[in-house]
User: Fold these one by one.
Assistant:
Number 1:
Amino acid sequence: MAKKDAFDPAYLVTLDEIYHCYWTAKKKERIELLRQAVAHFWPDGHPARLVHISGTNGKGSVAHYLEQGLRFAGSTGSWTGPHVFDYAERFHVDAERASHADIVDIYRHHLEPYQRSLAGRHLGFPELGILLSLHLFERRGVAWGMMESGVGGRYTPLMALPVAASVVTNVGGDHPLSLGQELWQRALEKAGVARQGVPFFTAAAGQALELVVRTAESEGVDVHAVSDGDLADVRSRLSQSHQAVASFEVANLALALAIIRHFYPERDPAVLLEAMTSRLPARFWTPEPGVVVDVAHNREKIEQLAEKLKLAYPDRRIRFLVGVTRRRDPVEMFGPLFELAEEIVVTSASYPGRDPEEIAALLREAFEPVSVRPDAREAYREERGRLAEGRLLVLTGSAYMIDQALNPNPYVRHTNASFGWRGRIGDRV
């Protein structure tokens, strides 16, 4: 940061909204459209207390830690993303995934009729997901519901919701094209989830912490930041129970613990930590012996994956099967894996995947050996078949690639891979 006093969050946000007035107006229209929908369905307010979670990494883990840790207060739920194999993975109540029947029923009897009533406007993909989760929470009597932002925070539809707490896990280098090239720009976006009078929590560190705190405080909130002492306390408690956890897991647990104890200061930290056993789909998952699956898809998450692999499989050489989406730099992204890799095999990642030959060519400038297997499902079968005893195969880089490689439901797998096909043939409204 150039000069400390030069960072004026309110002014910078104002400039951004003036310079990009059409973009921000459209975003705010979506927020208002959802606010109207929430008021339609729950004129007296939604019965659950909601927590809005933003950040670069750890959002899903913190949401599920909170879902598990708050069970003593009643039923809990979460809405997270993206899903890996099945859209229903986005919705949980009491750590159980929503049923297809619930999703169909809520959509057909509540959301689709309301969508038709809008006459010329329409709810989009995120708004429908949020409303589905809120209906599910009401149906299941949820006391606390955790809501995860996708990209950004300040202009996401979740800003339509009255919440009990706002959270920024951390701020890293994600989505520079949509959130800004500079760290301070991403901090403005993510910490923009702060709402006046609502407690705000963060586990951001270093320069990002100062940026997040100043942005949140400019919105008139009390900031509760995870301290080094909080991290040390969690690390000590975990070591006493002989749990080997990575540094990012300690930060996520400390953040969830701080949120719960803010509202319930009498709760025993040891008991809360014992309840927090988040197991998210395709996060350091071992579907079969010798195989690890992790949906890490940016530099920070790949660094975290490398840390976990070193802890769990010290001195093991590993074969990686990877896919890449959008405009990410594969060398920058996968750099932390080079020292662990025996070989990197590049495959396709469906929507919105990059050409594996292009990715492989870029990787070969920094690392050898690299090979290409265009079909993700076939690539996984081949790699699994050749995996010798004591060796490790890791799938990472893209949730879309992992879905295509491992999803057992061919119908859902095809639907996931062809997302948006109607719009591509001129059917977009």
Number 2:
Amino acid sequence: MTVEGATTISTGDAKALFDKGAIFVDVRGGADFEAGRIPGAVHLDLKSTLTEAALMEAADKGQDIVMYCNGQKCGLSSAASVKAVAWGFTAVKYFRDGFPGWQTAGYPVE
């Protein structure tokens, strides 16, 4: 899946953005977030806390923002990316492989 206005990124791309200080936004529910996440990720549950104002508190509209959830079968991060683009965020990255892809690659987790 692709998201118009957002860049779909691979796990390697996500790690490079992580190393450059991009803002990672975990849009999964609270139990998933508490069970494990990308270090430093902002938790904005798509169903309850992801709003334009909340996203503005986490990042500027031109800053790299990486949206992720539970992998390719999880539609939450694509929906969150669509919202962010509609709100005027211009550097939205859709990390389709999400947390499972990050873990599988052996990258650090919290």
